[in-house]
Amino acid sequence: MDNLRSASTQPLPTRRLRTGQHLTELGLGAAQFGNLFTATTDERSTRAVTAALDAGIRYFDTAPHYGLGLSEHRLGQALAGAAADVLISSKVGRLLVESPETADRTDDDGFVVPATRRRVWDFSRDGILRSVEQSLARLGTDRIDIAYLHDPDDHWEAASTTGIATLVELREQGVVGAIGAGMNQSAMLSEFVERTDVDVVMVAGRLTLLDQSALRDLLPVATERGIGVVAAAVYNSGLLSTSTVDGSARYDYGRAPRPVVERATALAEVCERHGVSLPAAALQYPLRHPTVVSVVTGMRTEEHAQSTADRYREDIPESLWEELHASGLAPDPARPS
After folding, report:
1. What is the DSSP letter of 32?
2. 268 three-state secondary structure
3. pLDDT, the chain, mean
4. How far separated are the first and last CA of the chain, in Å rounded?
5. What is the pLDDT of residue 81?
6. SS3 of the chain: helix, strand, coil, percent, to 5
7. In angstroms, rounded to a whole number, what is the distance separating the alpha carbons of residues 335 and 141?
8. Region class of 14: left (phi > 0), else alpha (psi between -120 and 50), else beta
9. Number of domains the chain is built from
10. Quick check: 39 and 112 in contact, CB under 8 A?
11. Residue 259 lies in a domain
12. Residue 42 is part of which domain span?
């Protein structure tokens, strides 16, 4: 199988969690395997995974939310037979419940799939146990390397008590390897790091060339407590994904405001002066901070996997980071605050 051949290639450099797992500095986000915004196929998803393995990627992130379980199913199929050094993270908090009454409709949460199931917010012990059991079945494995509480913004009380307690229980049983939370904000993630027994957190869109809010709250406390941080959504929904900034591109899931487009354009101009592509700088920027253990980006196709690995490997001179820092466009995460 291509998977077996690919998994024998040399992995990318890794960074270690306190629980012992080594994450490659670049990870594949599998939301698009769940038909996010547009449909893909089992074959294209498998080819994307194979290309990622060929490129040395060994960390793969998914969630039940992505395509009502389709992403987990496709990722599990694509990784069947891969080497043991592959790490998979999935999420809990949105329990999937059969919904025959809506099966004739399309999912209304951005995924082009039949609404044969519905999502139910559930951070109870029973809900998390059921969610993990379902994820293990879809992934075709007996262990999840990292389990994140998924978007618990409006559920702090349950997520920070029964949610974390249940994940701790599963970690002690060896069903999951490490536990944490994944969110589009850094403030509550800082609370999880300060007040609960998490090992790693995933912050989306808050440690980027356009938004460094995680540098002010999350990264200091995570560094102090030895908690790993995974950075996701480093292109801020697409505005930083091309070297020439498209003013109509999306920013944080919506239309990009004019001042943000102007900042992205200024970033692109600095990158061009230093012979660097804006997407490569966006991808490598979070990795400047030693507490960041991986950057995860969506990769729908094998071309996406190959081009993303190329961006990770692109040589970026220190002079670029120095100018971005001095200009105030983007503080260097490698420098003390």
Report:
1. G
2. helix
3. 95
4. 48
5. 77
6. 40, 20, 40
7. 41
8. beta
9. 1
10. yes
11. no
12. 2-234+285-324
